Amino acid sequence: MKKRIVAMILALSMALTLAACGNGDSASNTGSNSPAANGEVDIPKQTIKMAHMQPEGTPEDMAMKAAKAKIEELSGGNITVELYPAGQIGSIPESIQSVQMGVIQMCIAPCAIIASFCEDIALMDLPYLLPDDPAVISQVMNDEIGQEMMARLDDIGIHGLGVWFAGFREMTSNTDINSVADMAGLKMRIMESNILTDTYNALGAQPIVVAYSETYNALSNGTVTAQENPAQSTYTMNFYEVQKYIVETYHAAQVHLFLTNGTWWEGLDDATREIMIEAEKAGRAVLEAELPGYTQDCIDKMVEAGCEYHQFTDEQIAEFEAATAPVYDKFMTTDWRKDYVPRLQAAFDEAMAAEEQGT
Description:
Layout: H1 2-13, E1 46-51, H2 59-74, E2 79-84, H3 92-101, E3 106-110, H4 111-114, H5 134-141, H6 144-150, E4 158-168, E5 170-173, E6 187-190, H7 194-202, E7 206-209, H8 215-221, E8 226-229, H9 231-236, E9 245-248, E10 253-261, H10 262-267, H11 270-304, E11 308-311, H12 314-324, H13 326-331, H14 335-357
Parallel strand pairs: 1-2, 1-3, 6-7, 6-8, 9-11
Antiparallel strand pairs: 3-10, 4-10, 5-8, 5-9
Helix pairs in contact: 1-3, 2-11, 5-14
């Protein structure tokens, strides 16, 4: 019944034109020593709803459960959290729209889909923008420069609270991928994303948008012959059953944003806001702790089932990076993007250098 009501509201909202992205301010992810975190203030009673698309038991699900538990703990039970996993609220776009409309208060969603609402967020899918170190990605994107990107959501009624790395997106197919030449004519399932479309066009493939929930059937019947997803998605959605090769290309990562309804967020008292900030951190910490082992376990199981897995060499990465470089030129169409992307690249380079030096 709840899902039917949500669907009706979402259907009405589809006629609305989404506002352009802006430069709103983003709250700082600080405050672990706040009165709320220390249980020193009374929190207004309320029930909030959170959603995500991943199956129960996945690292994302464990992370959202940790966020729920932290909210209920720090509020002294005054806030009740209803968590809807595995797409119970609807598709990813419907979940984002539900947050935007205030039907639910929070969800996590991949940047590629959020870009349909705010195109600036698509920058997270620029090929080979992100370093191959998940800790560096999380560190940089949850610092001030990442908050600047999330602030682009403020003018469309959404507040971005955190950036969650959810794994590098591997390419899978029924023919092995070792060079750009191997991409020619490959029918690649993608999420709806201009940058992903441009990326695979640059590689000579044929990008085809297919809903996440319909991808298995599309692979099975030949509508598409390849797809890209983190290992845990490829495994939990059983895509590996109809794919032979799994290739770690490092071309992009699945990066989720932890989203809240903007009006709801602005209406919270300071203490309740601090609880939400702490909850996002708690969820992110669980995801970062659980993801590596879970990912490797998924890869191992897919190999045991008969798939072949390999990682790109530095030379292969260089070839794919060169082939997809023109995608940047197509994206750099505004002053903000032209300024922001080089600063983000510099922040990643600086963080990687510090990591290598052990500082």
